Amino acid sequence: MAPSPAAPDLLTAYATAQAALVRIEERGKLSPVRGPWRTRTALAERQALAAADAVDWSVDNVTIDARGRLVPSAYDLTHWKQAIGAPITLATLAQDPAALLAWLGADQPRAYDAWAAPLERDPDARLAAVARWQQACRALPPAPPLLHAARLAALWRQHAPLGKGDRVASLLIGDRWGAGRWRGSQGGLTALGLQHGGAAWTIAQGAALDRLWLEAIAAGAAAHCESETRLRSYAQRAGPVFDRRRRLGRLKEVIWLAMARPFVTSAQVAHALGLTSAGAIKLLTIAVDEGLLLERTGQASYRSYAIPVTAPSPPSRRGRLDPFAPDFWAREGEMEPRSEPL
User: DSSP secondary structure string, 284-295?
Assistant: First the structure.
């Protein structure tokens, strides 16, 4: 079956989304702050996926290792968190139900107890449901990857083969098929864009779903690019401070550590750099005095610090398109055209 011709505005949205993905892939290779930037984007994507899963999530739910990778803890209640950032081939998504369930972490052991988990599907029924979804996916008309990803995700929500967490699973699968082809998304870039868009994407269908999905990819990529720009600007401001100090010590390492996190504590600095608590506090105090860090809390027993950089907030897609549309706050008759010359 030949694909139906796309509308010009849909082609423009597709080109915008793909260009945004190429842009974040290039920044991931060339940016001088790509190390802490990747950690921050991973945190933002995990938070967006948790929001889509209706889970109360905080940065305390993950541990950031020495290489900036996120390790989820038992307190992270997001469904299928194992699949976030984990690799999987496109052939596996389309053809191997068992491997797809293993990627999601939904392959339950044979000792399944229906009384202990009455709302979950039997493992065999879950496997058969995923196979039916894959068969339905093969019947979809051909489409470019980013659009096909939106339709795969919508079809997954329609079939709901897992019985729980299908909304976040659909986002993980759709992101891997679409935005995940570029190095820049760790599974939640599309979810991040949908979160900022605020539209009813779970019930959208057809052309409306295609447009929402493409706009979400562009918005998520724009948020990542803005985060990189702000981190790079902060690093440029911190450079003269390092050059001015005669005895730099490990101050630069502390700042690099703080750039990758929403906040840091003296315990985190001491553990990451192998310092004593007093040494970590001294370095953090120097950073505050130099204007490189802001103290978030005033308790003597527990203090946290953050770099003076705010998280980006992409504009909502629900902004008014018509600049001459009536304003809700306008007084009656204020927007009416005058009948006499000024």
Answer: HHHHHHTTS-EE
What is the average per-residue pLDDT within 18-45? 94
Asked if the 245-306 domain carries CATH number 1.10.10.10, the reply is yes
Burial readout 326-338 (b: 16 or more C-beta within 10 A, e: otherwise)? eeeeeeeeeeeee
Taking residues 57-77, report their average pLDDT: 86
The two three-digit tokens of residue 152, written as one number = 């795969």
Helical pair 8-30 and 206-244, crossing angle rounded to 10 deg: 30
User: Phi first, then psi: what are they for 188, rounded to 5°?
Assistant: -125, 15
Cα(135)–Cα(129) distance, integer angstroms: 10
- Where does the pLDDT of residue 335 fall: very low under 50, low under 70, confident under 90, or very high at 90 and above? very low
Least Cα distance to 194 among 84, 319, 56, 48 occurs for 48
Name the burial class of residue 80, with classes exposed (0-12), middle (13-18) and buried (19+) by CB atoms within 10 angstroms of its CB.
buried
Residue partners of 103: CB distance under 8 A and separation at least 6: 82, 83, 86, 88, 92
Report d(CA 196, CA 41) in Å as an integer.
15
Domain ranges of the chain: 8-227, 245-306
Residues making up the chain, counted from first to last: 342
Token output for 141: 């008309």
